[in-house]
Design goal:
The chain is α+β, with helices and mostly antiparallel strands. It has three domains: 34 residues; 162 residues, no CATH class; 206 residues, no CATH class. 51% of the residues lie in helices and 10% in strands. The strands form two sheets. It has a seven-stranded antiparallel beta sheet with strand order 3-1-2-8-9-6-7. Strands 4-5 form a two-stranded antiparallel sheet. A hairpin with a 2-residue loop joins strand 6 and strand 7. Helix 2 packs across helix 4. The two termini are 53 Å apart.
């Protein structure tokens, strides 16, 4: 069976061409047409073929985006209702808040006029729970859709990525525009989301999510040296996902402990919910989990690693910026050493997890040092998502981590815990279920060390084997 558009051979039962993406659902269309013996007749106009990007699985790309954006809308709706003080938002205010949260999770900034003084307020904040869950489900649905579509080629993969990106960027533009339909609250007037930043950062986040699932879920798509390096970074990438989930869980437990010790206080730079009213407490915890828990986890992790935190405040022509590290904070409150200990334990566990899912060399040693290449990039992306700023009239403020130290300490901790993980993991063969044990991946050990010895040509098979006794007649 061949594609009627490009002539590529089709897999049995395939609905789309893996090369050009055109739909071939009708079996009668998959029969190859005999080319003319002497070319096209004189004066015959060859019809122009539609570019491959305009064909293919557009419905699948729309479904993938609907899953991811739908999850973001659901979490934003829960956060908007649970985060309301007193009565929950009503009418168009609910939808406006939801659209704002989704656009901010994609990376957009918000501008509005305060209903109190009429000053213009600009806010840049990213609710990472909404972003991680939404883009994670989108990427997972994208991977499942590709796997169910039959044999995959690099061209088909690239075209489908383009279709998903086009629909996603267009949907984010619509969401940013719809956020202007209603006021987000009684003190928020003429609120709007920046369309350009929403589309740009949303596309960048989509690229990171699709790259992650490609590394983890599509072995063999890019053969040769690219596949070699994909196998090397698959374990560290998986380990950074483990670090994200583990740090969020540990931070949630830390908040519960601080809440029991000092309800309504502000310990370790974390605003602890109050326990005076059970209903308000439940709403505050739900808001924390569905909106900003990874934000707090990132703060605990990076600050505990020793990355300097810059906090700046400006008032008219006056202003200043303060930089604090874990050493400065521990000098004021010894409880900050708990944060450093949590970060160290999480990093050691990440190094062990990375080595556990990394390939082995020909000598049986784990390739753990590649965590030093992946961890700085992952922490850099996290630090960008944690940057927060707000300005109103002549007053402004914001905070963020020093990106240079994020990369430097990420590399230092990566090589340290990566090598420590190779010591902690005593297994000398690939972990069960590791991609390098799947059929067709290639030899499990990477080609480090001397090649196997050549024992010469095999013996010629003349005569029966030694000890062979012919059957009796």
């Amino acid at each position: 069976m061949y594609c009627p558009n490009c002539g590529s051979q089709l897999a049995p039962g395939a609905r789309f061409c893996s090369s050009c993406g055109i739909a071939v659902a009708d079996p009668s269309m998959t029969q190859p047409s005999a080319p003319p013996a002497y070319g096209a007749p004189y004066g015959y106009a060859v019809p122009r073929q539609m570019p491959a990007i305009f064909g293919g699985d557009w419905a699948g790309a729309a479904i993938v985006n609907a899953i991811g954006l739908g999850a973001m809308f659901a979490l934003s709706l829960i956060g908007a209702i649970a985060g309301g003080t007193g009565n929950a938002p009503q009418g168009s205010a609910v939808f406006s808040v939801v659209f704002h949260f989704v656009a901010m999770a994609a990376g957009g900034s918000v501008s509005f006029e305060s209903g109190l003084g009429g000053d213009s307020v600009d806010v840049a904040f990213r609710p990472l729970t909404v972003a991680l869950v939404g883009y994670g489900l989108l990427a997972f649905a994208f991977l499942r859709r590709l796997r169910r579509g039959g044999p995959l080629t690099r061209a088909g993969y690239g075209l489908q990525v383009g279709r998903v990106a086009v629909i996603h960027v267009g949907a984010l533009a619509v969401i940013a525009l719809l956020s202007r339909l209603g006021d987000a609250g009684p003190f928020v007037v003429d609120s709007s989301v920046d369309v350009a930043s929403t589309m740009f950062y949303g596309a960048a986040t989509l690229g990171i999510a699709l790259f992650t699932v490609t590394v983890l879920g599509l072995p063999g798509l890019f053969p040769g040296r690219v596949e070699h390096y994909r196998g090397l970074i698959a374990g560290p990438v998986r380990a950074m996902l483990f670090l994200t989930v583990a740090s969020s869980v540990v931070t949630f437990v830390l908040v519960l402990v601080l809440m029991a010790d000092d309800p309504g206080g502000n310990r370790l730079g974390i605003a602890v919910p109050s326990t005076e009213n059970v209903g308000d407490l439940v709403r505050q915890i739900i808001t924390l989990v569905v909106l900003v828990l990874p934000n707090l986890a990132g703060y605990v992790l990076l600050f505990g690693m020793g990355v300097p935190l810059h906090v700046g405040v400006s008032l008219g022509d006056l202003g200043g910026e303060e930089s604090r590290t874990i050493l400065d904070a521990a000098g004021d409150d010894g409880l900050y050493w708990v944060m450093a200990g949590i970060a160290l334990v999480l990093l050691v566990a990440t190094g062990w997890y990375s080595a556990r899912h990394s390939p082995v060399t020909a000598t049986g040693k784990r390739v753990g040092w590649w965590l030093a290449a992946v961890m700085p990039v992952a922490l850099f992306v996290l630090a960008l998502g944690l940057d927060t700023s707000a300005s109103a009239g002549g007053f402004g403020g914001g905070g963020g981590f020093d990106l240079f130290f994020v990369i430097l300490l990420g590399a230092v901790y990566g090589i340290g815990v990566g090598m420590l993980g190779t010591v902690l993991v005593r297994r000398r063969e690939p972990a069960p279920g590791h991609p390098m044990t799947r059929p067709g991946y290639g030899p499990p050990p990477l080609g480090y060390g001397p090649p196997p010895q050549d024992y010469g040509p095999p013996s010629q098979g003349y005569g029966p084997p030694t000890g062979f006794r012919p059957p009796p007649r």
